[in-house]
Amino acid sequence: MRLARRATAAAAMVLWVSLILAAQQPADLAGTWSGEATLEGMDEPNTLTLVLEMKEGKLAGHMTDQYGAIDGDIADVVFEQGAFNFTVTALFGEGHQGTISFKMKVNGDSMKGEVEVPDMGAKGTWQATKRQ
C-alpha cells in the first residue's frame, strides 16, 4: 500500500513537471509583441515592437521602436523556464551605438521585466503584450 502511494505521488510529480516544461516552449513566443518601455529619468515612454520567429530550431527576432533608434535583430537569446533574455543594438545620438539588455518573464501572452542600457547608465522596465 505504501509503495503504491509513493509510486502514484512520484508519477504525479513527473506529470506536473512535464506539463510545466511543455507549457514553456520557445515556439510559443513566435509572433509580434508590443509595449512601452520606461527608463528611469526619462519623461516619455518608448513603444517597442518585437517580432519573434523560429529559425532553424532557434528563437530569433527583430526589434524596432517609435523613434527609429532601435531597428535590428536581437542577440544573446536565452529562453528557459519562463525567463526570456536578449540584447539589441540601438543608436544613441549621432552614430553612437550601444547595447540594450532585456531580462523578461513570460506569462502567456504578456511579458514584463527589466531593461538596462549600460552605455547610458540607465535602467528601466518593459511590458509587452503579444498581438499575434
Structure summarized in a few sentences:
The chain is α+β, with helices and mostly antiparallel strands. The chain is built from one helix and nine strands. The chain has a nine-stranded antiparallel β-sheet with strand order 4-3-2-1-9-8-7-6-5, with no helix packed on it.
Describe this structure in words.
It is built from one helix and nine strands. It is of the alpha+beta class.
CA(first)-CA(last) distance: 50 Å
Topology-level CATH name:
Lipocalin
What class, by secondary structure content?
alpha+beta
What proportion strand? over 45%
Rg from alpha-carbon coordinates: 19 Å
Q: CATH H-level name... which superfamily?
A: Quinohemoprotein amine dehydrogenase alpha subunit, domain 2
By oligomeric state, this entry counts as single chain
Query: Number of domains in the coordinates?
Result: 1
Number of helical regions: 1
The CATH architecture term is Beta Barrel
CATH class: Mainly Beta
Overall mean pLDDT stands at: 85
Q: Identify the strand order in the major beta sheet.
A: 4-3-2-1-9-8-7-6-5
Shape: elongated
What descriptive keywords fit this protein?
single chain, 132 residues, alpha+beta, Lipocalin, 9-stranded antiparallel beta sheet
Question: Helix and strand layout, with pairings?
Answer:
Blueprint: H1 2-23, E1 31-39, E2 46-55, E3 58-65, E4 71-73, E5 75-80, E6 83-91, E7 97-107, E8 110-117, E9 122-130
Antiparallel strand pairs: 1-2, 1-9, 2-3, 3-4, 5-6, 6-7, 7-8, 8-9
